[in-house]
Amino acid sequence: MNATLAYIVCVLHVVIVTNSFNIDINAPILKLGSVNTSFGFSLVGHTKPNSDKGIIIGSPKSGENGEIYWCRSLDSTCSKITVDVRALARTNNEINGALFGYSMSSLDYKNPENVTVCAPKLTRSIVQSDYVTGGCFQLDANLQDPKAFQSSMSFCQDIPEAAKSIDLRHCTIGATVGHHPRSPNSLFMGGPYFYYAKGMGAILDTEKFSRTQTSRENIPPNTLLGSALDVSDRIFAPQYGPDPPVYVAYGGPGVPVTANEAKDVGTGIVLIYHSSDVDSGTDLNPVIQINGNQFASRFGHAVLLVDINNDGWEDLIVGAPYQEIEAVAGGQPQYGAVFVFTNRQDFAVGAPYATGGGMVFVYHGSRTGRIGLPAQVICTPKLATNVPLRGLGFAVGLKGLDLDGNGYADLALGAPLSDAVVVLRTRPIIKFKVHLVLPDGSTRIPSNLDSLPDCTAEASNLPGYMAPKVRCLNTKIFMTYTSVDGKPCKPDVRYRATVLLKSDPPTPWLRELWEEIPAGSEEITTQPKDSTCGSHGFVSLASSTLFHDLSIVPVSFIGERSVKDYADQADRFFTVNRSASSAAVNSPGGYLPIDLEATCRERMEDRSYKYPVELDQGTAKTVRIVFRDTKLVDQTSPVQIGVRWVADLPVPYPTAGVMDQFPISNPRENSQLIKLNFDNDCTVRTCCPRLAVTYEFEVSRDKHGPVVYVGDDKAQTITVKVTVTNIGTDPAFMTSLVSTYPPTLLELDPTLGPGLNVAPNAASCSLANPLIPGESQKCLLRWLVVAHQLTVQMAQFSVNSTIITGAASPVEVHGSPTHELRVNVKMVVNVSVTGTVEPNTVYFSGNASDGIKSISAENQIGDSRLLIKFTVRNLRNHSLIPASRLIVDWPYEIAGDIKESHGKYLLYLLDNPSVVQHQFSIPGEKETNTTSVVCDSRALKRLVNPHNYRIFKFLRPSSDSVPVNLGRVDFPSSHPSAYPPLSPNKMSQEVPGRNEDSDKQQKRLMTTVSCYNGQLRCVPITCDLGKLSHKAGPITLEFIARLWDNTMRQDFKDFFLTKLRLSATWRADVKYGIDLGDADHTQETIELSIFNNLEPKPIVPKYTALYIALAVFGGAVVLAIIVIILKKAGFFKRKRFLRKPKQDNTDASKPLDPAAAKPTTTSASTTQYSRQPAVRTRGYQAGTMSMTSSQAGGPLDEGPVTQPAVSARVFTFEEPSGRFSRRIESAAY
After folding, report:
1. Least CB-packed of 343, 636, 1015, 1039 within 10 Å?
2. Residue 352: how many other CB atoms lie within 10 Å
């Protein structure tokens, strides 16, 4: 099945309706229930045995377990239908809330049949466990004698594990219910929470009390299968026969569970089952499974089987209320969609949560199965009710039931959030038809159009082409209406309508872009003739397409208005697709609005009126058809006139009782095509003329072919001659020569007579209408070349000539029926470009420097400052070239390593170029130099002083030059867009013409570099010179640059001479051709000679003083470090000794001094002074000294030893500062 997606908001219910455009919203019938009872949650149309029609409305929250109400068709009050749910269901508990009336179904809505009402939350207690079994009940045709289907309540009880799990005891059988006439004893039910919310579909045989259910295999938990259902016997087209099988479709919108392993859980499914014998004892398996495509979209929430493409087989419509529709730029996402699976019936979709209280969308079916925009949208604010409605569209019902007996199905909409139901009645449909006839009542136009009245003066106000003589045809127009339901109309009732006429209408305008054409309306095509030419040599020289391209209007109306002037008023004639009105903007012809009164005309298939105008003489009006040029009227095809209308029909008022007084017309059928045929044989049979065509041309030529020169003072003409002979046996109508040409370059020769210009860019020469067999006619068209029209920009134009005949006449042509004369447009110019470089010879020498970063001013770039000039002159007198450009190929860098993106600098452009241009001077005023020359800012931004070196402005050579203007200037289209590829190798040769005294042993080489030999990387500088006139004088561009010496030293040191070539190209910036002899441009090349003097100069470091300063500073630092180290080592201090004189230290009361210290002698002859409180003596700090002396051999009491005595003295003293102390040892052997 192919799916078509129609977007809405929050789809919850879909239902079949008919004639959807005529649902009236001005006189609704409102039925109200008790507050907070969900009155209107479900509804179903019903017909009682006494032919009393009405609606059964469910109110599942009323009372203890829910209630249902019977509402007669046009009454606002409803009566309760008493049903004791607990008693019928034999429940033995006190649990209420069964939701009786949640779903309902009837076998036949139009005939008395039983009604089924379900309560999905019906609860029963079994062995101290509560089972939410659900269940269904049945009422007879009189809505009496209710009984319960006990089998529908036992599905939960039969699950073996149900007693152990509360989830298995929650089944909700009866959430949906349905019937089908093919299987009257079968009751189709859905239980979405059966078996862990997998859901199920159940089929119950109400006669045999047998049942079957859908299989649980491959159904994941939380699928909620059975949330929606519909039944049909026309799903599979191959199943023909008197007793086709019945199929049931169950929707499973699912509960979005992200942790579920099954990837499709949460996207929703629809399963279609074959309703096999319920006594088989086996579960049903699906024959078709359709999955949703978006997680949490609730695909399958609503299901409808309906034939929307009128092929006899029902299609599937699936609601997905939370399908997310991607938001457009700057908008918010929308939710809700209807999926149409096509295998012409209309259907309605409810959107109860839409903005404003809910909506209902009504869609038209189509032959192709394509569902487009809704044909009618019913919004809550538009309903004429005095009660605010919420949740409108929760229930959409009646399925074609006619409540008011006017022959049209009505519509009931539930709004349970407001506890209300709205009944919308349908209005009867009438069909309009417009008649256009001649005064005698016929529809045939005489073939001799020249016999019609002359209305040239009357038609003079019409825009567009008209022949010297214009003919008019008087016609009568009137309007009638009929009833489509077969009921007789009232002759005295008339309806006003505004009619819009348009000749030769385009198909989108007439059909309003509807893809199917209403039955009984005419196609915009020519009817087939009774014979064909039967030869492969025939071609169609149809004139309709050519006339459309040229906006030629052969037929129009007196008093018509242009399409653009009437565009705002024309929108109301397009009731569904107003964009279709734009199709008339580009079509020839205008609008003729007429106000008419439509009169009743009964439908009598066996009766025809020869003179219908006699019946409606009082309402007919005159329309004058204008034939602008009788020679351009195609008499092989009928004159086609498109008609659209808007009828002023009465609108029902809020308290209207009968809809028969308020008819409505189909918005799709407010257009018509009227055809008026000509009175000749070729309108009833196919005429097959044979024509011989010969062309001749007179035009100036050059070596490239036909040419005209712009700006040439000589008279130039182009002449087209054609000869056409009818060599067949049938006449050729409307035989003409039509030539199109550029009106800005060519002007039709006025000496040929009036009436040839049929359009601003086309001329026509009529040969004959008709061209009878054996007749030969000639035609001539001549144009004058407008040579001074310099604003025209084209290199070539064409004069296209075509022989045209009637659109319905295939023609056998000997020769070519069409010819294209291509003419070149050129301007003869004489422009010179001269150039100089000052100086033209420069030198470089020395060694390579540090590079770019070591340069701060322009003089450090190189010694050679260059002035390059290019001068452009127009040498032809009385010549003005409207626009031209000069392209200077600037040698920016050398090729170098071609793998790199940049090379080394060669010519460094110091400043923006300047221009010397003297404009036209006014006598008596001083001549000033102002310029309109504009050079490309993009190239100059890249080239001019990119490193911001200091430039010496005082070195500008020309005092009368001014800077050029900067802007974006593109290449002329004829100029090459790229240079030749770079070459890594330099081309060298010996320097010619050696002097006699030169060193012949030394080989001197030279090389040539330019932008066109691959040695340089060049940037084109494009300058717009504007108008170039001989009288205004030349235009000189000046460029100041420096030769980058370092590049020459590094890359050209092996060459004695380097020739640098600079080129500039002038091109005219015009679209027509330029004749400069053998070329269309002028190019000048100048040469700069660069010599190497071969004497390298010593390189003086740039930062010598800095280097010296750094060396001195480094030496001083090293010296300081050495001094500090030596000082720390005591290198700069002398040794001093202090001896203590002998002193008696017996008097302890006297202060001690260093001289009084008495040493103690040990055996080792060691003398040690101990530090005592000091006093200052001669700059030293004296202290108490102690001396011990001992022998090296042992203690004092031992005897003398034999080894030599060694004595040592240790003196300890302190300097006056107290910071240093020295230990002085002396030893004696």
Report:
1. 343
2. 28
Per CATH, domain 690-821 is 3.30.200.210: no
pLDDT score, position 516:
44
Q: Is 296 left (phi over 0), alpha (psi -120 to 50) or beta?
A: left
DSSP character for 1193? S
Block residue for tokens 């050579």: 957
Q: Where are the domains of the chain?
A: 16-237+250-426, 430-513+537-603+611-683, 690-821, 831-849+857-919+931-989+1004-1092
pLDDT at 178: 93
Q: What is the pLDDT of residues 600-642, one digit of tens each?
A: 887 544 344 444 444 455 689 999 999 988 888 888 888 999 9
What distance in Å separates the CA atoms of residue 676 and residue 913, rounded to the nearest whole number? Answer: 74
What pLDDT score was predicted for residue 23? 82
CATH superfamily of 831-849+857-919+931-989+1004-1092: ntegrin, alpha v. Chain A, domain 4 (2.60.40.1530)
> Are the CB atoms for 1172 and 1155 separated by under 8 Å?
no
Instruction: List residues bridging with 72 in a β-sheet.
Output: 54
385 - beta bridge partners?
none
Low-confidence ranges of the chain (pLDDT < 50): 4-12, 16-19, 238-239, 344, 514-528, 530-531, 536, 604-615, 790, 1145-1229
Cα distances (angstroms) measured from residue 273 to each of 299, 318, 401: 18, 16, 28
Tokens representing 251 are 């929707």
What local confidence, expressed as pLDDT, does residue 292 receive? 84
How is domain 430-513+537-603+611-683 classified at the CATH fold level? Answer: Immunoglobulin-like (2.60.40)
Q: Is the pTM of this model over 0.85?
A: no
Pairing of strands 1207-1214, 1166-1168: parallel
**CB environment 758-795: b (16+ within 10 A), e (fewer):** bbebbbbbbbbbbbeeebebebebbbbbbbeebeeebe
Nearest to 957 by CA among 834, 1041, 841, 1024: 1041
pLDDT confidence of residue 809: 67
Closest by CA to 498, choosing from 668, 660, 649, is: 649
Contact 829, 874 (CB under 8 A): yes
Q: Give residue 121's pLDDT.
A: 94
Residue 500: the pLDDT is 95
Find all residues with CB under 8 Å of 934, minimum gap 6, and list them. 964, 965, 966, 967, 969, 1023, 1024, 1026
- The phi, psi pair for 1135, rounded to 5°, reads -85, 135
Asked if the domains at 430-513+537-603+611-683 and 831-849+857-919+931-989+1004-1092 fall in one CATH topology, the answer is yes
Please state, in angstroms and rounded to a whole number, the distance separating the CA atoms of residues 906 and 406: 97
Residue 367: the pLDDT is 52
Residue pair 48/142 in contact by the 8 Å Cβ criterion: yes
- Mention the CATH class of domain 16-237+250-426: mainly beta
Sign of CA dihedral 768, 770, 772, 773: positive
**Cα–Cα distance for residue pair 939/890, rounded to 1 Å:** 10
How far is residue 943's CA from residue 740's CA, in Å, rounded to a whole number? 50
Q: How far apart are CA 50 and CA 111, in angstroms?
A: 10
Q: Assess contact for 309 and 329: CB atoms under 8 A.
A: no
CA distances from 566 to 413, 459, 560 (A): 41, 19, 10
- Under 8 Å CB-to-CB from 885, ≥6 apart: which residues? 969, 971, 972, 1022, 1023, 1024, 1025, 1066, 1067, 1069
**CA-based nearest residue to 203, from 270, 151, 131, 259:** 151
Do 106 and 57 meet the contact criterion of CB atoms below 8 Å apart?
Answer: no
Q: How many residues does the chain have?
A: 1229
